[in-house]
Amino acid sequence: MAKRTSRMASMQTPSRFPAPSRCWLVPGLLAILALAGCVSAPPDEPKAPAPPTATTPASAVSPLPALPPVSDDAEHNQKFARWVEEFRASARAAGIAEATLHSAFDGVQFLPRVIELDGAQPEFTRTVWDYLDTAVSAQRIARGQDKLLQVRPDVNAAAARYGVPAEVLVAIWGMESNYGGFTGDIPTIDALATLGFEGRREQWARGQLLAALKILQNGDIDRAQMIGSWAGAMGQTQFLPSNFLAYAVDADGDGRRDIWGSVADVMASTANFLARSGWQAGQPWGLEVRLPPGFDFARADADVRQSASLWAGEGVQAMNGAPLPALENSSILLPAGAGGPAFLIGPNFRTILRYNNSTSYALAVGLLAQQLAGGPAVQTPWPRDLQALTSSQLKALQTALNVRGFDSGTPDGVMGPATRSGVRQYQRSLGLPADGYPSLDLLQRLQ
């Protein structure tokens, strides 16, 4: 997935669209977001530099003749055709061959469904435990262990070359496409042309579309097989075209980087993305921990980082009593607030966030990989009696916090650092654990 993702709210990011390189998303909520580029699980967006958007002088684009008045549908189709012709010219100026342009655009279609999905703003959210129940289900673990045995030579080769554990690679594979079972069914060229024409993310879509044309021109895949999600993410681990150009690997030596059909290429490409995004070989992503009595829950924050040895000095313990792993710049994560499990997470967790900028996603990858390797599931019970706030309820909470003088930023129904800070301030004023978790009880107190 190198995507990704990136407006993503509680446990979500505008999947596969540009986002900050690191974003600590609110623990406990995960929107059922169509905006994710991943095809089997909510996603976000890996963070690779997108190729520069081609700019074309006006003189390079031949003027089109004036059109007579037409119906709305016909006018729309003609506007789309004009946009495609203009993009052809800019792509031609950027070095895309005429044969590639014909292959890509002669049958290009505007896809209304892509626009519907891009504009989807789900009202209802899922708790992190509901998300993990599906993402790290017993069935997915069992299937992943079988798949790990089946692809062992390819995944071991990628793990040895790039220093990323085989179980992590297979976990991402499982999250992104159910181990290659479904990689999407939308033509990438059509999806990106539709997004570019619609205009809300035109510059981003133009950059990705140009990258997709370069992939076609390089011969890695043909137009008919270049399919994926509505947001342009492709292949068994859902790479955006720009990420494909930057990180895809021809591991099987057939002259093509085939993340659709070659498991060797899928594993090596995914491992290359993680390695070049900061993966630290030999370190775990994190682990579940037990917090000491009297722990200041406000310190469970992405910006509070220190060595695991300092956390141990404060009384933080591994669940099995073993010494904490040697993690530098590690943080405490409370995905369900003070009433749920706690995790000590390190740099490799943040690297998974660069693959898909969703805390729930990164936690699911870590826990799935852990159990694929025979490790434990989460031991601390989740607070399943808590309800996730809807987008409207979260907006009401933000508004009420602001009215009371606890600045939570502009009320938008999206949980971010400002809202979390406002929640913590209000919790402290009540003498509650300042975990920043936006509960229904807190909203009712405010109202």
Descriptive notes:
The protein has 447 residues and is mostly helical. Helix content is 43%, strand content 5%. The protein has 17 helices and eight strands. The chain has helices at 72-93, 98-105, 112-118, 128-135, 138-150, 152-162, 166-177, 188-198, 202-218, 241-247, 263-276, 308-313, 347-355, 359-372, 391-403, 417-430, 440-446; strands at residues 29-31, 125-127, 186-187, 227-228, 286-290, 317-318, 331-333, 342-345. The strands form three sheets. Strands 6-5-8-7 form a four-stranded antiparallel sheet. Strand 7 (331-333) and strand 8 form a beta hairpin. The longest helix is centred in the N-terminal third of the chain and has 22 residues, at 72-93.
Summed over residues and divided by their number, the pLDDT gives a mean of: 86
H-E order:
EHHHEHHHHEHHEHHEHEEEHHHHH
Radius of gyration: 23 Å
Shape: globular
Number of discrete helical segments: 17
The class by helix and strand makeup works out as mainly alpha
Question: What order do the strands of the largest sheet run in, or round the barrel if closed?
Answer: 6-5-8-7
